[in-house]
Amino acid sequence: MESQGARNKILKKIKQALKSPVPVPFPDQVAETPIFIPTEQELAITFAEKFTELLGKFVYCADEGELAQQLAGLIKAHKWEKIYSQESGWLDDMKEYNFDPVNTDDLDSCDVAITLCDHLIARTGTIVLSSNQLSGRTSSVYAPIHICIAYTHQLVFDIADSLQLFKNEEEHLPSMISYATGPSRTADIEKTLVVGVHGPKEVYCFLVDKATD
After folding, report:
1. Phi (first) and psi of residue 185, to 5 degrees
2. Among 111, 118, 119, 61, CA closest to 90
3. Does 181 or 51 have the greater pLDDT score?
4. Which of 20, 108, 124, 207 is the most interior residue, by most CB within 10 Å?
């Protein structure tokens, strides 16, 4: 009974405090926009560090030619045979490197799925996908391995920046926005971290510095 009484006293104090919130001590110093705006290079470094901390696999490419070369090398090294992608331009480019991958329409049996994305969030190492993309969220969730292709101009610092871009670029927000941070994971079973339970067990991000003219 005593512990219940103490709990009620604490809740009462919190409610009273919320009725009369403490004013900001220096209102003139509160800015609506961040004082520090990271450069594209700083965002790329921050994203790469956070993404790899979360067990993501990061690959930097100077241009789309290097992207095709790196993709071909990765797929050959892992002997992935069935690739699901609704944006298949990079797959055609791989033929230059004596590699002609099989682009399958069967998501259930594919080895890997390749998608674009809307944004990359540097602070959290997050890949942002939406219904704007042809592949949507399905291919990034149901494939055992997800490869995301992104460009440096898609880097933003935080989630709020990503949402603001959606608002600026669209009259209405996309019907689906997915914020995917690293491979799927859970610790529900005896508090043991298990990767690849509700989604891909491996996530790659190929960050391209600039598009080919």
Report:
1. -150, 155
2. 61
3. 51
4. 207
Tell me the two tokens of residue 75: 């797929």
Strand locations in 75-187 (E): 82-84, 102-103, 112-115, 119-121, 126-130, 145-151, 155-156, 177-180, 185-186
CB 157 within 8 A of CB 119: no
Q: Beta-carbon neighbour count of residue 73 at 10 Å?
A: 14
Instruction: Inform me whether the pLDDT recorded for 46 exceeds 70.
Output: yes
Alpha-carbon dihedral 64, 88, 109, 201, rounded to 10 degrees: 30
Q: Is 170 exposed, middle or buried (0-12, 13-18, 19+ CB in 10 A)?
A: exposed
Distance CA 122, CA 134 (A): 24
- Of the pLDDT bands very low, low, confident and very high (cuts 50, 70, 90), residue 196 is very low
Task: Count Cβ neighbours within 10 Å for each residue of 11-48 and write b for 16 or more, e otherwise.
Answer: eeeeeeeeeeeeeeeeeeeeeeeeeeebeeeebbebbb
Q: Are strands 185-186 and 126-130 parallel, antiparallel or unpaired?
A: unpaired
Q: Which residues pair with 186 in a beta bridge?
A: 194
Structure confidence at residue 20 as a pLDDT band (50, 70, 90)? low
In angstroms, the CA 48 to CA 42 distance is 10
For residue 104, count other CB atoms closer than 10 A to its CB: 16
CB-CB contact of 131 with 176 (8 Å): yes
The answer to whether 86 and 139 are in contact (CB under 8 A) is yes
